[in-house]
């Protein structure tokens, strides 16, 4: 289906205005009778032209140079009737009559230029609106003309449409009808897809447009060929040669040298904003600053667009999530740096790892459920120097108490279930309070403050799906209580009051440290 613009080329001025015409407009050697009064009233261009200071004010015939006849008919019809052209949806069974009256995007642009020249602002806005609609179906053709006529609004709209389809460039042939100029413009955009997909789309276009072969080398300079494998590069020479082999060798060598450079930015996020994110696998969700995997996929891949020295990644998970983080310099060879695949994480994640050169970041989850991440930060953090990372589990080994000093300060890095009253956590005996860290930590101790004689036990786990491990169980005790155990991953801490409710109805916890200090 395509959206087409209907114009009645048989429009007759005398059907709308009965007065005798007093001026003849000559467009492309065609004489068009018209009325000075109507033209002056509805059009600023003609109002100025017919003023006494211009020669045309007294001429019976006026030649309008550099004006497209068909486009001018639309202008004239609007002046006389106030009617804007109508949009039609053309289906496969459209009548021949309608098909004969429809015009192309190119003609729409001619109408737009004509309306701009004759200062018909309403028609300009309406035509741009129709062209924006066409962007949804064929953004490539619209971009060609928008660039040729320097119409910024349409350049922006067609660019947005192309970027939305970036992950499926080859299959949908989104770029198949681009001009060389439009191709160069698009290749400078941060398209959200793998470089190999952009390359395949370009090579397909090159094979279908041999007449533009002089532009091939310049366009290829915008492709990061060093990210492609040999099979892709061979597409430039099979079944027929598209470029000079020596050109490819030289360009590839230059790119490989440039790609080796690693930038170090200390304590500052190298991702400057949501618009700066290039998501080559996954998608951005409209106005929300969240990223989700594509349909039927489980991974999100971010391209930082150059290599950075990193040792820290921060992100926010909107839902409970088990995940891994892998990193790469070329999107082909990946190193696993964070493995939280068996832990339940949520909220803000602060992840440290051994410093390394990174360009691509892959977030992967085996979850069968929808997930999204947001607020992604990638940086070289000096805080990492004071953080111990367990090399086997990639978990942080905390060297300080993860809990707040004041029991009322409920917030990062954990949540708690239990009633907060006057500076302590209170539950009924035989019930439980649960602390849940946003992410797993490797800990081996726990410290509790009881100001009243109490009986209780405490258990730990790294997932609600895991069996709980009891680390301490005591009766009729008070004061600071310390539990030490083999260091292990912890996400959840559960404390259960066990005293007979007839003796004491409530269990109260006045302080907690994890790990114990």
SSE order and pairing:
Elements: E1 2-6, E2 23-27, E3 30-34, H1 36-42, H2 44-49, E4 61-63, H3 69-81, E5 86-90, H4 96-101, E6 102-103, H5 105-117, H6 121-135, H7 139-148, H8 152-164, H9 169-172, H10 180-187, H11 195-208, H12 216-220, H13 230-233, H14 245-259, E7 262-263, E8 278-281, E9 283-285, E10 288-292, E11 299-328, E12 335-364, E13 373-379, E14 388-389, E15 396-397, E16 414-417, E17 419-421, E18 424-428, E19 432-461, E20 469-497, E21 506-509, E22 511-513
Parallel strand pairs: 2-4, 7-11
Antiparallel strand pairs: 1-5, 1-6, 2-3, 8-11, 9-10, 10-13, 11-12, 11-13, 14-15, 16-19, 17-18, 18-21, 19-20, 19-22
Helix pairs in contact: 3-5, 5-6, 6-7, 6-8, 7-8
Please describe what this structure looks like.
This is BTB domain-containing protein. InterPro entries: BACK, BTB/POZ_dom, BTB_POZ_domain_cont_9, Galactose-bd-like_sf, SKP1/BTB/POZ_sf. It holds the Pfam family BACK. The chain is of the alpha+beta class. The protein folds into 3 domains: 160 residues, Potassium Channel Kv1.1, Chain A, CATH 3.30.710; 124 residues, Jelly Rolls (Sandwich); 100 residues, Jelly Rolls. It is built from 14 helices and 22 strands. Strands 7, 8, 9, 10, 11, 12 and 13 form a 7-stranded mixed beta sheet that branches. Strands 16, 19, 20 and 22 form a 4-stranded antiparallel beta sheet that branches. Helix 6 runs antiparallel to helix 7 and helix 6 runs parallel beside helix 8. The N and C termini lie far apart (70 Å).
Number of strands: 22
Quote the beta fraction: 35-45%
What's the number of domains? 3
Which architecture name of the largest domain does CATH use?
A: 2-Layer Sandwich
Which of globular, elongated, flat, extended, rod-shaped describes the shape?
elongated
What low-confidence regions span 5 or more consecutive residues with pLDDT below 50?
1-9, 87-101, 405-414
End-to-end CA span: 70 Å
Q: In percent, how helical is the residue content?
A: 25-40%
Radius of gyration: 34 Å
- Which CATH class of the largest domain applies here? Alpha Beta
Biggest sheet architecture: 7 strands, mixed
Mean pLDDT: 86
Give the name of the CATH superfamily of the largest domain.
Answer: Potassium Channel Kv1.1, Chain A
Question: Helices and strands: which structural class?
Answer: alpha+beta
* Total of DSSP H or I helical runs spanning 4+ residues: 14
Q: What is the fold-level CATH name, i.e. the topology of the largest domain?
A: Potassium Channel Kv1.1, Chain A
């Amino acid at each position: 289906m395509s959206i087409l613009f209907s114009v009645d080329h048989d429009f007759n001025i005398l059907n709308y205005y009965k007065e005798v015409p007093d001026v003849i407009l000559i467009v492309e050697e065609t004489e068009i009778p018209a009325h000075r009064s109507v033209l002056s009233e509805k059009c600023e261009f003609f109002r100025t032209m017919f003023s006494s200071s211009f020669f045309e004010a007294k001429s019976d015939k006026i030649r309008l140079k550099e004006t497209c006849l068909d486009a001018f008919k639309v202008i004239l019809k609007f002046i006389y009737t106030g009617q804007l052209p109508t949009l039609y949806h053309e289906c496969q069974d459209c009548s021949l009559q309608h098909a004969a009256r429809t015009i192309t995007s190119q003609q729409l642009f001619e109408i737009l230029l004509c309306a701009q020249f004759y200062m018909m602002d309403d028609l300009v806005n309406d035509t741009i609106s129709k062209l924006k609609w066409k962007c949804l179906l064929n953004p490539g053709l619209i971009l060609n003309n928008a660039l040729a006529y320097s119409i910024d609004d349409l350049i922006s709209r067609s660019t947005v449409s192309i970027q939305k389809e970036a992950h499926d460039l080859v299959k949908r042939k989104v770029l198949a009808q681009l001009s060389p100029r439009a191709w160069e413009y698009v290749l400078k955009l941060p398209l959200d897809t793998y470089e190999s997909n952009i390359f395949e789309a370009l090579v397909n276009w090159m094979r279908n447009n041999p007449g533009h072969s002089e532009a091939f080398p310049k366009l290829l300079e915008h492709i990061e060929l060093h990210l492609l494998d040999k099979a892709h590069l061979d597409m430039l020479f099979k079944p027929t040669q598209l470029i000079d082999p020596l050109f490819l060798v030289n360009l590839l060598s230059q790119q490989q040298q440039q790609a080796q450079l690693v930038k170090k930015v200390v304590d500052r996020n190298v991702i400057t904003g949501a618009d700066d994110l290039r998501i080559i696998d996954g998608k951005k969700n409209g106005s929300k600053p969240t990223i989700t995997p594509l349909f039927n996929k489980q991974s999100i891949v971010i391209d930082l667009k150059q290599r950075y020295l990193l040792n820290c990644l921060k992100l926010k998970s909107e839902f409970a999530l088990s995940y891994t983080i892998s990193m790469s310099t070329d999107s082909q060879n990946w190193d696993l740096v964070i493995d939280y695949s068996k832990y339940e994480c949520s909220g803000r994640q602060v992840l440290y790892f051994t410093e390394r050169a990174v360009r691509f970041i892959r977030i992967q989850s085996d979850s069968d459920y929808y997930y999204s991440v947001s607020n992604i930060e990638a940086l070289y953090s000096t805080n990492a120097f004071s953080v111990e990372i367990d090399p086997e589990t990639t978990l942080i080994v905390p060297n300080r108490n993860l809990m707040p000093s004041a029991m009322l300060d409920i917030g990062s890095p954990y949540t708690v279930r239990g009633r907060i009253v006057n500076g302590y956590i209170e539950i009924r005996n035989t019930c439980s309070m649960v602390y849940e860290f946003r992410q797993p930590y490797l800990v081996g101790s726990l410290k509790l403050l009881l100001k009243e004689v109490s009986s209780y036990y405490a258990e730990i786990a790294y997932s609600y799906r895991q069996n709980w491990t009891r680390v301490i169980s005591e009766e009729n005790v008070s004061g600071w209580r310390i539990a030490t155990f083999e260091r292990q991953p912890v996400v959840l801490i559960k404390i259960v009051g066990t005293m007979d409710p007839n003796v004491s109805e409530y269990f109260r916890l006045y302080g907690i440290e994890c790990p114990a200090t």
